[in-house]
Automatic annotation (TrEMBL):
<dbReference type="InterPro" id="IPR013264">
    <property type="entry name" value="DNAG_N"/>
</dbReference>
<dbReference type="InterPro" id="IPR016136">
    <property type="entry name" value="DNA_helicase_N/primase_C"/>
</dbReference>
<dbReference type="InterPro" id="IPR037068">
    <property type="entry name" value="DNA_primase_core_N_sf"/>
</dbReference>
<dbReference type="InterPro" id="IPR006171">
    <property type="entry name" value="TOPRIM_dom"/>
</dbReference>
<comment type="subunit">
    <text>Monomer. Interacts with DnaB.</text>
</comment>
<dbReference type="InterPro" id="IPR036977">
    <property type="entry name" value="DNA_primase_Znf_CHC2"/>
</dbReference>
<dbReference type="GO" id="GO:0000428">
    <property type="term" value="C:DNA-directed RNA polymerase complex"/>
</dbReference>
<dbReference type="InterPro" id="IPR030846">
    <property type="entry name" value="DnaG_bac"/>
</dbReference>
<comment type="function">
    <text>RNA polymerase that catalyzes the synthesis of short RNA molecules used as primers for DNA polymerase during DNA replication.</text>
</comment>
<dbReference type="GO" id="GO:0003677">
    <property type="term" value="F:DNA binding"/>
</dbReference>
<dbReference type="Pfam" id="PF08278">
    <property type="entry name" value="DnaG_DnaB_bind"/>
</dbReference>
<dbReference type="GO" id="GO:0006269">
    <property type="term" value="P:DNA replication, synthesis of primer"/>
</dbReference>
<keyword id="KW-0460">Magnesium</keyword>
<keyword id="KW-0804">Transcription</keyword>
<keyword id="KW-0175">Coiled coil</keyword>
<keyword id="KW-0479">Metal-binding</keyword>
<dbReference type="Pfam" id="PF08275">
    <property type="entry name" value="DNAG_N"/>
</dbReference>
Amino acid sequence: MSERIPEETIEEIRSSLDIVDVISEYVQLKKQGRNFIGLCPFHGEKTPSFSVSQDKQLYHCFGCGAGGNAFSFVMEYDGLSFIEAVQKLAPKTNVTLPELSIPVNKSEVSDEWKHWYDGHDLAAKLYHHILTSSPEGKKAREYLRKRGFTKTMIDEFQIGYSPDSWSFLSDFLLKRGLKAEDMANCGLVGLRESDGKPFDRFRDRIMFPIWDKQGKVIAFGGRILDPDSEPKYLNSPDSEVFNKGNLLYYFHGARPKMKKKNEAVLFEGYIDVISAHRAGIDYGVGALGTALTESQAKMLRRNVDRVILCYDSDNAGMQATWKNAEILQKAGLEVVVANLPEGYDPDDYIREQGADRFVHDVINRHQTLMAFKSSFLKRGKNVSTEADRLLYMEQMLKEIAKLPKALERDFYIKQLSDDFSVSPEVLKHELSELMAKKEKTVRKEAYKEIQSRTVASAKKMFDAHEAAERHLITLMLQSRSIAEEIEKEIGANFQLEEYQALAALLYSFYGEGYDTNPSSFLERLEDPSLRKLAAELAMKQVNLDLSEQELHDYFKHIRLYPLKQELKELRVQLDQVKEIDERMSIANRILAIQLQLKKAK
Ligand SMILES: [Zn+2]
């Protein structure tokens, strides 16, 4: 790289950042002992194994092995290069970055993605300008005003308007130097089959930019003005950059607020998110399709403990609520349901009933998932007839059986027995049969999990030697003076490749005059797997006050290891060799080693 940020500047930024502040913007952290813990953002989990040390300015996950300092966290989480991570974090400090003459994006982002970002950025600005300040946008402006959109909302959500033309956007982008093919590849325009010329995909539509996690526009949703046109909503096609299943609408804007509240509201579409935002619900996001994916659920789980589902109150909306609730629960989220009166979607409700009622009667008066399931299961049934009543009770019992807590199960059994004057004993009996069936499958799964865990832990068992090398590197990372002693006593005698590499790098780090500083040392590790290993070891709590004797036991262990290995191999050879002279020479070598080992004791 020809263009670099000076090392001192990077060091200055690193030392003025607090890793706990940086990571707290992405992960909910709780103080535990000396460290902070939270749910790992790099793998799905329900119990926290992600640990952040403020003293050492490092993080490490005991579940998946992720680890590093503030820069590597942002690199890994946001998918940034090192320089981009530095640029992202610098504004949080008082350090000013030197102007880089070459924009970093050029070398770090592939050309294709750069065209994508540039094209979408230009298109979003153009559409927004047309909507807010051009005569062509008048009709759309009036339409939005009638629907209660304010200027603030239109600006906050960068809403725009695409004029009724086949070439408005394509001409504009071509003039700005974008190629037809690139624009078509990223879904901004289509290509005519007859002559391959670009044409506008979105015509006479209200345009809603869709952002990625970093807040870059990567796609559009377009809604018709004319109620007779079809389709009502048109989205950019899915592609490498725009993957609906990995995105939530307005996630980048809502994230800080949802983290603060430890709660998010999930809506079906962007109009709902925007209307609710105006009503003061600024921690809402939208799914960009009806069925939520596991990765969308994980995005929410990393930021909040609870999700309020607020979908349309029609049959399709309720079905989506049910399905998505299960996906969210599986990701470890608590789920509640905001109830809209029959026939409403959130946007209709806010326009007709007002923002206050939406907040108080819908969002704040949310119901438990079981209450929602009960009302959904009653739909279309006439529970005063015996057949429907039995069917309803059976379906409810199945849902009750899924509840993890006995107290909860009892509560709903009691409710069911009161509602239909059935004895609770009968219901409990039915329930226990259902649960026995479920238990069997759960036990099978648990058994499988234990088996795979045993294999994994066997892999993690280090033999005595590896443990010794590992421990010495851990000490070296956390103490310059111990490192210097180790260099004197052991030097390059580490046997295992990764520890050998770390030892060499640590010797030179301290040799250059640096003091103990694991986070700064990590900066120099280009190999991500070495960096993770170093972070893991540096995070370990070790006693740095160990006695000379303890330290020397480790040294001896490391020094004698090659001899012990040789001894083992010679014994195997002795069993196999028949030739008498050869046997004698092997035996002599064995004796010599044994003597050497004895002396060393
Ligand atoms: Zn992890």
